[in-house]
């Protein structure tokens, strides 16, 4: 988390907790969080006005409307938010049914940023570094020279579809001309982006596009496609917060500057609220890869750092972006984030979830997991973890789907291009997997 831009100006800094909460309470009476688990809302409990969590069923992209009759009255001071409101109409229908004002960004601005093709124009406008790339229209899939010849020159490429999904199945690493041709066949009829692969450190930076400025927040090392955990090269496996000292000189600041520049362009185009940017570092600077114009899973970690630093958590800043004309003045002090991490538990097969670990705080013992009193993430002991199920018993899942999230203090992997999980990280994944079962 940072409270200053790369140039040293605090103009893109975090919102102080006191003035942020005062502004929220002036505009909002109730806050509702609608998601598969409360991992983002929970760190804000006791801070934001009258927090209520409601479960968003797994894979649901619609929400049952109210029966015939007058629509419920809408109360502007009752505000709802959700993880990815652009996925189907479920969140919007939920808000209407509950009489809530949904804090969700403009769909056109969201689509433009999320689109892997138009995001290239966004990065160009923001004047941030990006890897060399080529856009491949549908009618040029079988024409030469190909992106493999122009960009690859024997080196790997990353090929992306226009729309990716939350588990990275719209991104492929291709390492040969034959693999490139197979990718074009599989995604025939689609516009694609081929990017020169940078063998570098995967990072993500979180931010929030407010009504008058972009707030630059936490930076994390992404655990992506970790061997033995997933079979998808680009799948999200977890994150661990990092500070400037964890990265080569200048890289942390490069991430901050990219977030500020891209956020300001998105704001100018009508986007509001939380977002994240995926980057890769070659050891000298960070190159922007894609934008996630929504909450990212890493916000669960970022908010733990924000609360510990005495600044408004991202969910609060996100809400303020929709209910105020200007954010409170930023705090000038910088904060070093605590070392906290999270790991994703993926479904190993297709099937119905028949057993899972209940939400809560756990300690590992010789007999398995024992529930203990819940404490803030940054205060957990080495043998403790917060566990958040993202699917419930009876949900049908597919191989690779995210079914649970494990959060711990400290780092669970080395900060490296190809990270290796620590024994502690592996033990937590094994412990949760032992209590997770699937049926046909």
TrEMBL record:
Annotated Pfam families: ATP-grasp_3 (PF02655)
Recorded coiled-coil stretches: none
Domain ATP-grasp: 120-328
Entry keyword set: ATP-binding, Nucleotide-binding
Keyword Nucleotide-binding appears in the UniProt entry: yes
Protein name: ATP-grasp domain-containing protein
Organism: Catenulispora yoronensis
